[in-house]
Amino acid sequence: IQLTQSPSSLSASVGDRVTITCRASRGISSYLAWYQQKPGKAPKLLIYAASALQSGVPSRFSGSGSGTDFTLTISSLQPEDFATYYCQQVNSYPWTFGQGTKVEIK
Amino acid sequence: EVQLVESGGGLVQPGGSLRLSCAASGFSFSSYWMSWVRQAPGKGLEWVANIKQDGSEKYYVDSVEGRFTISRDNAKNSLYLQMNSLRAEDTAVYYCARVGGSSIAGRPGYFYYMDVWGKGTTVTVSS
């Protein structure tokens, strides 16, 4: 299953609402997770089951979607949110990641 | 503290072998599926392999099938990745990750995710 994220990169300002999309090449129900990765660091789980917020993750992060189309939304971008975001499908093996979306400071 | 610490990375020639280790602490290691994920320099994340709690099920990405072997020793709280016939394209940071899972009220299914990650170990395949 291929995952295609869009955009590949975006520039945004603190306080902006940011939306990243992830499209699966075939239906994966809600078996999708989102991760945040900062340079030189390991990924961090944000969302699982497409919309469930991982414990300790700020509520400005939210996920939605089912089937083939998914979104990650940051309601009000904070300085610490500038990072690369990946979606991952866990519907079937091999598990796959999207190519990533880099969120940069405008 | 829940923690995963990888080791064993290094420089190896094409065709060579390397064994990565991941030491787990702070949680019941034997209760979780475990994963290896890699990231080539400047590239995205690639899932490599999974192993079930008792080691009875293993899954691999096609590009490493037959060359890499995932294993675990629950008595030692350790995860391993034996890498043989290494290629330049295996050059990456290798992360071990704990596979968590949850059911969600009102929704069918059981949802997996990687909720704990190590800091990674670097493997460089070059002559």
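Chain A is about 0% helix and 50% strand.
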